[in-house]
Amino acid sequence: MAQQTKIAVVVRDDLAGWQRVNVTAFLASGITAAHPELMGEDYVDADGREYLPLLGLPVLVFAAPAEDLARSHARAVGRDLPTAVYSEGMFKTGNDADNRAVVAERPTDELDLVGFAVHGPRNAVDKICKGLSLHP
Q1: Interstrand relation of 83-87 and 113-121 (parallel, antiparallel or unpaired)
Q2: Which neighbouring-strand residues pair with 83?
Q3: Rounded Cα–Cα distance for residues 111 and 107 (Å)
Q4: How far apart are CA 68 and CA 74, in angstroms?
Q5: By the 8 A CB rule, do 73 and 80 touch?
Q6: CATH code, 2-38+51-134
Q7: Mean pLDDT of successive 10-residue segments in the chain (136 residues)?
Q8: Can you tell me the distance from the alpha carbon of 131 to that of 129, in angstroms, rounded to the nearest whole number?
Q9: pLDDT tens digits, residue range 68-98?
Q10: Which residue from 6, 115, 117, 123 could staple onto 11, CB 3.0 to 4.6 Å apart?
């Protein structure tokens, strides 16, 4: 499955550096939680020390202006692919329950997204991210 699929994370390009990294980490965790079969095997160094597994396929990270991010998110929703979302208001909360409440306050097309992640067939993810630039 992993070879035929792709993960993309799209973050708003006007975020501070720490926010982009934070949003990317949260969104990648959403994809991982929904698709544990994408996880690779444990890592082991030459001394035999074990390390946690990582995703078994690359995560492409894109940066986009708010309107392009919203358009790409609409494409993902329109293709009925599961997505992880991060809304602007989540920067002001400190827990998962409050984060969910922030998202629940708005309908899909009015979410104040600063990022989203999607996992799906390569061609579908390519179409969702068409025109976006990879994060520098």
Answers
A1: antiparallel
A2: 118
A3: 6
A4: 10
A5: no
A6: 3.40.1490.10
A7: 82 96 96 93 97 92 96 96 95 94 95 96 95 89
A8: 6
A9: 999 999 999 999 998 999 999 999 998 999 9
A10: 115
